[in-house]
Amino acid sequence: MQTPQIRRRERISPAAITPAATSAQPDNKPHSETRPSLAPVRTRWRPGSAVSPPITDAVPSPADEPVIVVQVPAPTCRPRRERYTATPVVPAGSEVLPLTNRPDESLAVEVTYRTIEEVKPPRRQLRTHSPKQVEQIISSIRRLGFINPIIVDAEGTIICGVGRYLAAREMGLSRLPTIMVDHLSEAERRAYAIADNKLVLNDTWDEKLLAVEIRELMVEDIDLPIELTQFDMIEIDALLHEKAQNDDAPPEPDDGPPISRLGDLFDLGGHRLLCGDSREEESYQILLGEERARCVYSDNPYNIKILGNVSGLGKVKHSDFVMASGEMSREEFTAFLTSVFTLCARYSVDGAIQFQWMDHRHMREMLDAGDAAYGELKTLVVWDKQVPGMGSFYRNQFELVFVYKVGKAPHRNNFGLGQWGRNRSSIWSYPGANAMRRGRLNDLALHPTVKNLPMTIDAIRDVTHRGEIVLDPFSGAATTILACEKSGRIGRAIELDPKYVDVGIMRWQKATGKQAVHVATGLTFTELALARMAGSDEDGGDLPDEKDKEASGDDDAVSLDDPDDEDPDE
């Protein structure tokens, strides 16, 4: 059995070669094509050679000189760096091939700082770098440092890292970390520059694990800008979004007295629901304080009678709303809508989008109120409910949402022309409560005009980012709050009818498994219900803590006067 051999690159000993060969002094760097008079060669042994094959690269020698080969016994451990004296031997059966430029096996990567003037962009920039990408690199360098050096050749020309160079130049940096590569030929450098960019494009994300990682980052360090991952908020939202379904069995309104009372403020896991009047500015001050909404999603009362009309003659029936349930004239309803829209705009950021629902019978009032409160009507959206409702003349199968914009600042557009995988139009086709599907009767029982949950989620995802506030001045069954819960937004809602405040809270609790908390007392909704049911009927079941806080003027106390000075249920 032949003794294993190792490959070793050697200098030619002056004593072992002719004077003609000594005229060209070999350098310590890997061979390059700087000396055209020298012909780099390599020995390759054919299988079956009678001589034990020394696996050694030859050092360049004149073309008329023999190939220089050295045979070294294999060491029992990692050999230390030594210099061997070569002897001119031409083994029988050897094949001479050109020597490729390869780094020494002991080559170590060294980071060298160069002035930005010493670093030059390549003659051809094969990858384009948008201003947005350069800004992303800048934000990464500012927060995390210049971790990834630029790869350059011996002359300082960039092989890889043009984007980092552009970012550094934009930032005004004077010195750049670089790694110098000088063992490659010109062709190899160009090929490596292409490969370095292409290899990144050949892999894919494990989207489930990526979503887990991003969720953990958002929870563990709330001060860390998640955009440092170089995913923008639209991409993160799409990655974390889980397709929602309508509730299979949402809670039905209770026929007994409601637990909630006018003025109650509830915390629903970071969302907030106020039992109050959305026509009064005090409601918005209590609910939002210094916060401002990025979006309003409002299912306004339509000023039509509910009992015997919207409820129909079927199994599920609803009583009239506490206001705007057919009792207002055209002028009164226009004034009603204008007052609410004005407050919604006032408590929103500049550029906020406002979704305002209305049926076709009151489009004129909606347009007049919208013109008075908003800057621009962006579009009119039609909800195609897929199944027609009751009626004798063209059974109605749609509802309308008027999409307004507040102020003049740019609004959010998270769908564009479908570049983020979301193709959206002004026709929203989602099943309505009348559609024959699982949970249909539950939705009908929940609220007379309940909106489709996935539709609501998609709408607020269109114009907001995760963590931004969505305001709903007519909460009803808290569809907007539940949509915010499922999409990572923050819900702020107002509902005048205590019965529907209870329904919304119970619906949210059932969907999340969490407990709503009464802000004034710190009691959970269940504890509050038990305390109020055990309280005196004479004082309305108020809790001692609530009375004490109101008497002492505690800032945490919530107090609103009924505008009609009577129980809205009576």
Automatic annotation (TrEMBL):
Keywords (A to Z) from UniProt: Methyltransferase, Transferase
Residue spans of biased composition, Low complexity class: 13-24
SUPFAM superfamilies: ParB/Sulfiredoxin (SSF110849), S-adenosyl-L-methionine-dependent methyltransferases (SSF53335)
Catalysed conversion reaction: a 2'-deoxyadenosine in DNA + S-adenosyl-L-methionine = an N(6)-methyl-2'-deoxyadenosine in DNA + S-adenosyl-L-homocysteine + H(+)
Molecular function terms, GO-annotated: DNA binding; N-methyltransferase activity; site-specific DNA-methyltransferase (adenine-specific) activity
Keyword Transferase: yes
Domain of life from the UniProt record: Bacteria
Name the record gives this protein: site-specific DNA-methyltransferase (adenine-specific)
